[in-house]
Every structure is written in C-alpha cells, then in structure tokens.
Amino acid sequence: MAPPNSNWARSIASALRKEWSAEIRARHGFFSATLFGLLTVVAVSLAGYYNQPSGEFAALLLVLAVLFSVTVSVPRVFLAEDELGTMDTLRVIADPYAAYVGKVLYSLASNALQSILLTILFIVFAKPEISNYGYVIAGPISFSLAVASGVAFCSALVLGATNRWTLALVVSLPVCLPLVFLGVAGIAVGFGVGAPSTGNGMIAIQVLASIAWLALGTIVAGQLWRLDRSP
Amino acid sequence: MALLSAQELGKRFGARWLFRRVEFDLEIGDSLLLTGANGSGKSTLLRVLAGLISPSEGKVGRPEHIGYAALDQSLYPALSAAEHLTWAAEQRGIEPNIDLWMERTGLTDRKQVVGTYSTGMRGRLKLALAFQAAPSLVLLDEPSVALDEGGIGLLTELLAEQKGRGAMVIATNNQEDLRFGTAKLELGT
Questions:
Q1: How many CB atoms lie within 10 A of CB B30?
Q2: B4-186 architecture in CATH?
Q3: What is the ipTM of this complex?
C-alpha cells in the first residue's frame, strides 16, 4: 500500500521506469507484438495487392493491424506479472494505484509507437491514396490509446483468474468493438472519406475514452490489488 | 496494541480446512515460528497474515507496511538488484541506501540482472527487500533455505535488528532456525 509520506508522481514514475526496463530488456513482449502487427500489415496489404484499397477499406485494414498488435501486447504486460510469480512482490511493495498507472502508461507509450510504425509500413505496403496525413497518423495513435487503456482495464480485472489470457481477450471484446467503428471513421478521413469534423470528433472521443478507461481502471485495479483488509 | 493479531483465523480449500482457530498477538520483540509437516499450511498462513490471500474465517490485524520474503516469491529477472532496491524504495517513499544494501547482501555487481542469480543470491535480495524499509512487522517463509554461510550471517543480523524494532513470523522446518523464535506454533497437530 502507498506509504503515507510517498509522492504519488514519484511512485508512478518509478513504476513506469520498472515496466520500461523489464519489458524492453525482456524484448519478447514489445517485439512479438510489433512482429505480429507487421505480419498483419503485410497480410492485409497482400489482400489489396492488385487493387488499391478504398478509403474505408484501407482504414479498416489499418485498424485491424493496430488492434491485433494492441490485444497481443497489453494483456501480456499485466498477466506476465502473474505468470512470472512476481505479483506477490508487486503487491507487498508497490502502491497498487501507481503500479497500475505505470503499467498503463508503458502500454500506451509502446502501443502509440507501434501504431506509428505499423501505419508507416501500411502506407509503404498497401499504397492507399492519402488525402490528409494528419488523420492517418493521429487516427491510429488515438485508436491504439483507447484500445490499450480499455484492454488494460480488462486485463487488470482478470488477474488471478484461471485461463487469464483467454478471459482477458473475451472480456476485452465488448470494449474493443465500438472503438473499431470510431477508429475506422477517424482514420478514413485521412483516406478521403468523411469530413474533417467527423475525424476530429472520432479522435477526440477515443482520447476521452482512453482517459476514462485509465481513471476507471486505476480505481478498480487499486481496490483489487491492495492487500487484503480483514473485516 | 498488538503489532500483529490473528483472531479465530481459518483457511480452507474446498471442504478441507488447512487450519482453523489460529489465534495470537505479537508485540515488539516477539518472534513467532510456524512449524509443521509439508502441507500443514505454514506458507498459506503466512500469506493470509501478509494479506496476499483472504482467510476463510477470522480476522488479521497488521500494520500498513510489512516486510515479506518467501521461497516461492519471484523477482523481476530483467532487473538488477540495485534496480529492485531503487524501485522498492521509491514505491515506499524511503531512501534506497543502495550502497549499504549491496554491501550487506554481498551482491556487488550492480549491472548483473536477477535472471542470472543463483537461488541463494535471490534469497539475499529478497531479505534486503523485506528489511529495506525497516518495517515493524516481517513475515518470512523458509528464509534460510539455499543461503550459504554468509547469507545465514546476514539473516541472523537482520533478525537481531528486527527484534529491537518490531515483530516477526517465520515459517520454517529448519532446526537451525528455531533459535530465532521466542514462541512456536505448530500447524497440523
């Protein structure tokens, strides 16, 4: 539990630093998710190899690539802790709220980075017609932030359950589905479909959703991860 | 007021009670040894006392901050001992005193990651993490297993310091550890 004299911002920064060091050095989490996303990009690009994809189709393909990448990487950040057996160490030492926020911030940063990388690769491989690069870059980033914070919330909920990986993905489904529609509508503006006001609205909703999931997840995870308080 | 109090504590898995009606109070200077055969519930009782799992019945009263080290507890394989200690200190809002703890534990290579540590080296780091914040209550599960002579020396030192500062509970079946206790609770009898 958080010591009374602790600085919350310091605790979060420390949790984020620990996540970053552990994940980047272990490599398999970040790189397997990026590789998975890359393979998705190549596969979906091949689907439109002979015909340039339409704006909406291109947006859908890009959203799917980012979605797959996020749903592989985010649950791992949470469930790896449980599977490595470090959950007890985390719970007796760390402020649960700071630990959760640190994990989510790491997930948001790494997924934003991955979404940029995947977008560039998608543009190179699928060669879609682009009318506004701003939406093509900002759309996948905001989509990845919203999905990452939503999936993080679901992953934190199922810590300790049996079949955690499967359960995390199943619970994430209702969270991700509405975001897919928002993501496609936001990115499609960059491919010449829809008005800029629509794109701005969709991106804003996704950023707000990301903040809402983060706030809700912090409260829930903090309560679930705290040391038991007997009645 | 007791530092650690267990009232009518019980834990069951399915229909089988592992232990029931466990009661004790620990004050400063008290050191309770939990002993008993394999499967008698020593580690489970320690986890209940630490708040890592809930009891099936009864209540535990413990301080806000505890030190905890267990044989089956894992550390982060990609982080070094210094990084573990820094992270733990920042989470607890205390000074990390890395040099002091590295010297005391004998884990002098700051860059070596825990994934390359032996079981004994991990045991030393777990002790450092448990005692770093000078908690008023320390819970240890088989603390001397896999420790060499130097490690046992470190454990003896830390437990002696703890006696003047707070209370401790040690789950063990090692006859050598019995000297650390002021009271004994045998489970499974």
A1: 20
A2: 3-Layer(aba) Sandwich (3.40)
A3: 0.90
B73, A88 contact by CB (below 8 A): yes
- B29 is written with which tokens? 């200077």
Nearest residue in chain A measured CA to CA from B59: A230
DSSP 3-state of B4: strand
Domain boundaries, chain B: 4-186
Torsion angle, alpha carbons of A176, A178, A181, A186, to 10: -90
Q: What is the mean pLDDT of chain A?
A: 86
In Å, how far is B29's CA from the nearest CA of chain A?
Answer: 22
User: CA–CA separation, A138 vs A190, rounded Å?
Assistant: 9
In tens, the pLDDT along B44-91 reads 999 999 999 999 999 999 998 899 999 989 999 999 999 999 999 999
Which single residue is written with the structure tokens 């990452």?
A148
In angstroms, how far is CA B102 from the centroid of its own chain?
19
- Inter-chain CB proximity B68 and A92 less than 8 Å: yes
Nearest CA in chain A to B138: A92
| pLDDT tens track for B122-136 | 999 999 999 999 999
Cα B53 from chain centroid (whole Å): 15
Give tens-digit pLDDT for A194-227. Answer: 899 999 999 999 999 999 999 999 998 888 877 6
A223 shares contact with chain B (CB less than 8 Å) = no
| Residue ranges covered by each domain of chain A | 8-225
Site from A23, A228, A229 to mutate, B interface, most B CB atoms within 10 angstroms: A228
Q: What is this structure's pTM?
A: 0.86
Q: Decide if A84 touches B, using CB distance below 8 A.
A: yes
Residues in A touching B129 (Cβ below 8 Å): 89, 93
Beta carbons of A85 and B74 less than 8 Å apart = yes
